Amino acid sequence: MTAYRIALLPGDGIGPECMRATRTVLDQLVAGLPGLELSFTSHQAGAELYRQTGETIPADVLRDCLDADAVLLSAIGLPDVRQPDGTEVQPMMMVGLRRALGVHSAVRPVKLYPGAPCALRDAGPGIDFVVVRENLEGLFASFGGGSRVGEEVATDTMVITRQGTSRVTDFAFRLARRRNGRPLDGQRRVTCVDKANVFRSLAFFRQVFFDVAGQYPDVPSDAVYVDAMSLYMVQRPWDFDVLVMENQFGDILSDLGAGLVGGLGLGPSAEIGDEHALFQPSHGTAPQIAGKNLANPLATILSASMMLDWLGDKHRDAVCLEAAMIIENAVAQVIRQGDCLTPDLGGKAGTSDVAQAVADQLKLASAT
Ligand code: ATP
């Protein structure tokens, strides 16, 4: 049996309560699933720590994140905690952490669970696609750089490399092989989302995409401009399976995707590198509801499920893969039943009630 050590970063705002809820679920899972062993080290990091000490992630915490088998983060940042130049501390910490961990591909599933509020009048054959976002370069490569000339001109630079684009494209095709294809007809498909008609950098992104696609003859591929994709995601999202794109496009389209299938409270994410991986909900710290037991913990709980899936895949550990599925099924069941949901999903339940409801589903699963 492999024991996995997880570094936990509960963070700020609603982060700590979503993390507590996720621990309730993970502790129940470990208690009921023989062969699964998880240990946790929890660290303070983020805006509140910056307010107290002037740093967001101390060196020993970063070291522990690098040493752990995986990192589970809840949410970082507070609008009133700013650096001397007026910017929030969250981007500085997150871009730094991503670079340190080398997590090059961010995965955001856009999946409509039965019972979740869908933004579309008619969800057709269902919504189940994945946004794969290049996570280290693109427009974010200039983070911390860029230039400003007086009061008139400012620039940031888009960086696209063959290595970075091949890496994320390769990741997208391998992910497509593990999935069941698009809801429309079960066909696997990887779609490059770009603006190749306008920018040289993104024409290059598309060129490298198709170079890599040639190595996966079993998975059909195509390319769509990002503006058209924003339309198709709303008009016929069931046509898509895996979408791969530049960093900034992924940042935007994954929030659009979350909006289609119930909002940020249901949006998990995984950021994957060759050695390390970081898991966190797509939402921020929602300070106006923090500490009130109102936050939806399901995005963090689903991120923990993605973490177990990644660990299981990496270590060829069937128990861990099963654990991931058990959590996702329990979450799906709680959403389907609909009587224990937080206000963002139209319910009246508290964060801790939802955690307990998911944990109770796990108990039922191990009893049957
Ligand atoms: P960031 O820039 O850090 O991503 P943001 O300003 O985009 O943060 P979020 O904190 O993600 O904003 O949240 C936007 C709004 O969505 C919140 O104000 C809150 O109303 C709602 N929200 C986000 N996450 C949750 C959640 N887990 N449960 C309930 N509501 C949420």
Automatic annotation (TrEMBL):
Enzyme Commission (EC) number: 1.1.1.85
GO biological process: L-leucine biosynthetic process
Cofactors, names only: Mg(2+); Mn(2+)
GO molecular function: 3-isopropylmalate dehydrogenase activity; metal ion binding
Transmembrane segments annotated in the record for this chain: none
Domain of life of the source: Bacteria
Stretches assigned to the Isopropylmalate dehydrogenase-like domain: 5-358
Keyword terms: Amino-acid biosynthesis, Branched-chain amino acid biosynthesis, Leucine biosynthesis, Magnesium, Manganese, Metal-binding, NAD, Oxidoreductase
Pfam families assigned: Iso_dh (PF00180)
Family recorded in the similarity comment: Belongs to the isocitrate and isopropylmalate dehydrogenases family. LeuB type 1 subfamily.
Name this polypeptide is given: 3-isopropylmalate dehydrogenase
